[in-house]
Design goal:
The longest helix is centred in the middle third of the chain and has 17 residues. Helix 11 runs parallel beside helix 14. The chain contains 15 helices and 19 strands. It folds into 3 domains: 151 residues, P-loop containing nucleotide triphosphate hydrolases (Rossmann fold), CATH 3.40.50; 170 residues, RuvBL1 DNA/RNA binding domain (OB fold (Dihydrolipoamide Acetyltransferase, E2P), Beta Barrel); 81 residues, Orthogonal Bundle (Helicase, Ruva Protein, domain 3), CATH 1.10.8.60. The strands form 5 sheets. Strands 5, 6, 7, 8, 9, 10, 11 and 12 form an 8-stranded mixed sheet that branches.
Length: 456
């Protein structure tokens, strides 16, 4: 019997600049492995980031800030994303760029506070009455459509759930059937259905269906213990911004005027400090009762030198707040003018009083060996075959120009190889694309030599 392979379309998604970053690549003692988890070199910076991750996990870092400082293309954003990967998806990570605060619709401080609130999570624990088990039967029962004609409609759904202790057959409304379809529930899945709201949550595939493959997209969970009908602690993760937004835009009536009003509202609405204070009171009450737990996440502000003196002073107040996330700044500037001032110069374009609060992590330029390893890694991530000679040539281009420019040449070189009837990139392909394109330094040299031919 012929076995046909069906390829997943998920793999065809766009590969971004940092798709290969999987973590900080540290060993069990916190020392950086030269090349691991998608990162190469920068051992000191990675080890320092590892200490920051430990402080975040032990909840001793809230309201503090870290600055990643180094020349362009030395892996500052990569290290920040690696910190996010190490913390896992349960800890909020909110990336933004310094220039995002400048908007004609909303004031600068509001943009900053909104992102601060996005980076603070709230883990709410509730005890709910649920039906939980492995789906052993899922049968929609159809009846004649009330509108007449040949169409049929689902009147109810028969679902059987089984656990290690027993099984139960349930008759569910069509609305719950829609929820089951939305969650893509099928026979063999482990689910729970809330008894009061009818909300459905798919937990994964039953481990009885686990196969011998080492790597699969499916997540397998054990068969639930106890009865099908039980009380279960349900954990929900939300951010403070989610609570702000939900309370700032109440749904209102169902009449045409209120619906039109909702449609005509601008997408960005400023949330008042009064509303935030009220939400903070409720959050504090939940925390005191032990119902909820605060999870300080990470706010990553890239190109921090783009912020001005007003936003820097606002950051001071925000960092001192009782509810504050961990803030990671990144900049590639040296000593420069603080934006919003005429004559105040400071390291990295950050006021000295804020700079005193920061733990600074330095990144250094990559050497040629590191560059070649990164280029191999990028080629592997993009699914490209490349000869060692071509990698050496790209490493040389990287040292003369920049690593970013060398990485940019990979795809054009692959297309050149394809045109020449090869699947792998060879030295000739690198030389060909190298002659077609200019890097920033070469372009600047040509401008200098021919300055009389260009408009100034």
């Amino acid at each position: 019997m012929k076995v046909e392979e069906v390829k997943s379309i998920v793999k065809t998604q766009r590969i971004s600049a940092h798709s290969h970053i999987k973590g900080l690549g540290l060993d069990e003692n916190g020392f950086a492995i030269q090349a691991a988890a998608g990162l190469v070199g920068q051992e000191q910076a990675r080890e320092a980031a590892g200490v920051v991750v430990d402080m975040i996990r032990s909840k001793k870092m809230a309201g503090r800030a870290v600055l990643l400082a180094g020349p362009p293309g030395t892996g500052k954003t990569a290290i920040a994303l690696a910190i996010a990967q190490e913390l896992g998806n349960k800890v909020p990570f909110c990336p933004m760029v310094g220039s995002e605060v400048y908007s004609s619709e909303i004031k600068k401080t509001e943009v900053l506070m909104e992102n601060f609130r996005r980076a603070i999570g709230l883990r709410i624990r509730e005890t709910k009455e649920v039906y939980e088990g492995e789906v052993s039967e899922l049968t929609p029962v159809e009846t004649e459509s009330p509108a007449g004609g040949y169409g049929k409609t689902v009147s109810h759904v028969i679902i059987s759930l089984r656990t290690a202790k027993g099984s139960k057959q349930l008759k569910l409304d069509p609305s719950i059937y829609e929820a089951l379809q939305k969650e893509k529930v099928e026979v063999g899945d482990v689910i729970y259905i809330e008894a009061t709201s009818g909300a459905v949550k798919r937990q994964g595939r039953s481990d009885a269906y686990a196969t011998e493959f080492d790597l699969e997209a499916e997540e397998y969970v054990p068969l639930p213990k106890g009865e099908v009908h039980k009380k279960k602690e349900v954990v929900q993760d939300v951010t403070l911004h989610d609570l702000d937004a939900a309370n700032a835009k109440p749904q209102g009536g169902q009449d045409v005027l209120s619906m039109m009003g909702q449609l005509l509202k601008p997408k960005k609405t400023e949330i008042t400090d009064k509303l935030r204070r009220e939400i903070n009171k409720i959050v504090d009450k939940y925390i005191d009762q032990g119902v909820a737990e605060l999870v300080p996440g990470v706010l990553f502000i890239d190109e921090v030198h783009m912020l001005d003196i007003e936003t820097f002073t606002y950051l001071h107040r925000a960092l001192e707040s009782a509810i504050a996330p961990i803030v990671i700044f990144a900049t590639n500037r040296g000593r420069c003018l603080i934006r919003g001032t005429d004559d105040v110069y400071s390291p990295h374009g950050i006021p000295l009083d804020l700079l005193d609060r920061l733990l600074i992590i330095r990144t250094i330029p990559y050497n040629r060996s590191d560059m070649e390893q990164i280029l191999k890694l990028r080629a592997n991530t993009e699914g490209l075959e490349i000869d060692p000679d071509a990698i050496t040539a790209l490493g040389e281009i990287g040292t003369k120009a920049t690593l970013r420019y060398a990485v940019q040449l990979l795809t054009p070189a692959h297309l050149t190889a394809k045109i020449n009837g090869r699947s792998n990139i060879v030295l000739a392909d690198i030389q060909e694309v190298g002659s077609l394109f200019l890097d920033a330094k070469s372009s600047a040299k040509i401008l200098q030599e021919n300055k009389d031919k260009f408009m100034s």
